[in-house]
TrEMBL record:
<keyword id="KW-0443">Lipid metabolism</keyword>
<keyword id="KW-0092">Biotin</keyword>
<feature type="domain" description="ATP-grasp">
    <location>
        <begin position="120"/>
        <end position="317"/>
    </location>
</feature>
<comment type="function">
    <text>This protein is a component of the acetyl coenzyme A carboxylase complex; first, biotin carboxylase catalyzes the carboxylation of the carrier protein and then the transcarboxylase transfers the carboxyl group to form malonyl-CoA.</text>
</comment>
<keyword id="KW-0067">ATP-binding</keyword>
<dbReference type="Pfam" id="PF00289">
    <property type="entry name" value="Biotin_carb_N"/>
</dbReference>
<protein>
    <recommendedName>
        <fullName>Biotin carboxylase</fullName>
        <ecNumber>6.3.4.14</ecNumber>
    </recommendedName>
</protein>
<dbReference type="InterPro" id="IPR016185">
    <property type="entry name" value="PreATP-grasp_dom_sf"/>
</dbReference>
<keyword id="KW-0276">Fatty acid metabolism</keyword>
<dbReference type="InterPro" id="IPR011054">
    <property type="entry name" value="Rudment_hybrid_motif"/>
</dbReference>
<comment type="pathway">
    <text>Lipid metabolism; malonyl-CoA biosynthesis; malonyl-CoA from acetyl-CoA: step 1/1.</text>
</comment>
<feature type="domain" description="Biotin carboxylation">
    <location>
        <begin position="1"/>
        <end position="444"/>
    </location>
</feature>
<dbReference type="InterPro" id="IPR011764">
    <property type="entry name" value="Biotin_carboxylation_dom"/>
</dbReference>
<dbReference type="GO" id="GO:0004075">
    <property type="term" value="F:biotin carboxylase activity"/>
</dbReference>
<dbReference type="Pfam" id="PF02785">
    <property type="entry name" value="Biotin_carb_C"/>
</dbReference>
<dbReference type="GO" id="GO:0046872">
    <property type="term" value="F:metal ion binding"/>
</dbReference>
<dbReference type="InterPro" id="IPR005481">
    <property type="entry name" value="BC-like_N"/>
</dbReference>
Amino acid sequence: MFKKILIANRGEIALRVIRTCREMGIKTVAVYSTADAESLHVRFADEAVCIGPAPSKESYLKIPNIIAAAEITNADAIHPGYGFLSENANFSRICSEHGIKFIGASAEMIDKMGDKATAKATMKAAGVPTVPGSEGILESYEEAEKLAKEMTYPVMLKATAGGGGKGMRAVWKQEDLKKAWDSARQEAAASFGNDGMYMEKLIEEPRHIEIQVVGDQFGKACHLSERDCSVQRRHQKLTEETPSPFMTDELREKMGAAAVKAAEYIRYEGAGTIEFLVDKHRNFYFMEMNTRIQVEHPITEQVIDYDLIREQILVASGVPISGKNYYPKLHSIECRINAEDPYNDFRPSPGKITTLHAPGGHGVRLDTHVYSDYMIPPNYDSMIAKLITTAQTREEAINKMKRALDEFVIEGIKTTIPFHRQLMDEPDYVAGNYTTKFMEDFEMKPKKAE
């Protein structure tokens, strides 16, 4: 087992990893930028090393600084969390070259699954259903035009190196294709330095349902059931739940089996997520694989009583998995609390938290790194907390979430708490009747007079 793990991340996920390490008797090293000197993960770790100034590219994305921090503290493993370098094949490779265990996928695995066109071809070969579309990257606009005609509209253009919705364009008719092609390529080149595009049939009324998998070093994998992540804004998830209200026992078995087949086909090691699009007829199609822990992993932990971070560490240290699949015994919902103003187009709201009162009680979990007088820096993602409620039924979990959101007080900045509180009363959400298009028609109700 590892003696000391460096956490190459910040915020709530760094704190989350530190807590599990402490329970396992493993020493921890926090790295931080100058903007995060007062962050809780710095205080809670056994050691902390400043790796640079506030901008990510000069700190949390600077591989030499992180490796140097691991070497001077004698860390024998690095946990990358999510975001930043968690799916960077070069970082995984460099860790290996320095004799430091990367708690995540190998460089080869990230290369194979990180590029969406390559991942799709791999999944096709594994016998996992994929969305009809181009065979690899489109060579020209003319090829895109020809394929779109063959598949029939609507179609979706996607950047092969994409993420976060960048380089994606839905095209409903032929006359819009050229404009979409040009703008998607420009955005992809600016965001990823790669303007390669591929095309898929646009799935109508889709739900975004992912399957959590864990694979060990011996080629064995298991699944931990699904999470429904369909409530999204600009391809960013806002809330997630498990089990999915759209799921049937038969579909869960089929999707779980497909996810395990995918993981075992590529001999995947670690915790990962196979993401699917599910259409209104409950046909499912492979979308992408995330070769890391997900933001929304706590809801899976809650419904099957399982520490996914602990499992990541065990698998990375060479412990085999049991191989059994897990199914939800309870219902759990996560609301991502962001420092954003939902009344002003979700504009970021960094600044100082003047008052914080955290909700509590049975079935309420709060993963956060913020506290009263904490200064939220403007340099990073705006998520500041994850509020999770768990109960016997979906209805109870929603009622518990309403109560917890009413208790949750954050002053000094704007947050998405009012958005989530309104969401929990929306008839379509309460009925489980939502798709990835749900937010297109959503409007915040006016603030109540103080």
